[in-house]
What we know:
By secondary structure, the protein is of the alpha/beta class. The chain has one domain (22-108, 120-166): Rossmann fold (3-Layer(aba) Sandwich), CATH 3.40.50.300. Helix content is 19%, strand content 24%. It has 3 helices and 8 strands; from the N terminus they run ββαβαβββββα. Strand 7 (138-144) and strand 8 form a beta hairpin. Helix 1 packs across helix 2.
Amino acid sequence: MYQNKDHTNQKHIVTKSNNIDISNQKSLSEIAKRISNLIQRGDNFFLFGQIGVGKTTFVKFLINHLQSNHNINTTEVLSPTFNILNDYLINNFYIKHYDLYRIKQTEELDNLGLFEDKDAINIIEWPETVKISSLKFIKFEFSYSKDYKKRYLIISSNYNNNIVNEFK
């Protein structure tokens, strides 16, 4: 089971949400919709959690809500497990959706160009190998209940931001 370990080398979490119940897709979609109204260029989202807990589904809802907000046809949002990166152009900025599940060493990250586009929104599943000493980020911790019947989300950040404040 996923353990709530801090793999991001952060020194201090400034803000933190409560356990948010995401056991059904309707509630997960509603959370993604609320976040889509608060997201800003340059945001970095780190998504932690076991396989199948809802990380990619959350990203799908988030991107589709952003596309709808900007009157763009919604597209199919797939996990970038095999190609590592899927990017989406929404008006004049990019959302870069990474899946680093297969990346085991930090040296493998060098060719990905993570965080080079300062205006892009970076969404990173399995960010355990990323070193982020001076990076601002929002951390999403997806987890199951002990009996696996419910799923939960905790949102935290190493800086004060509207997304975390929305879910306090």
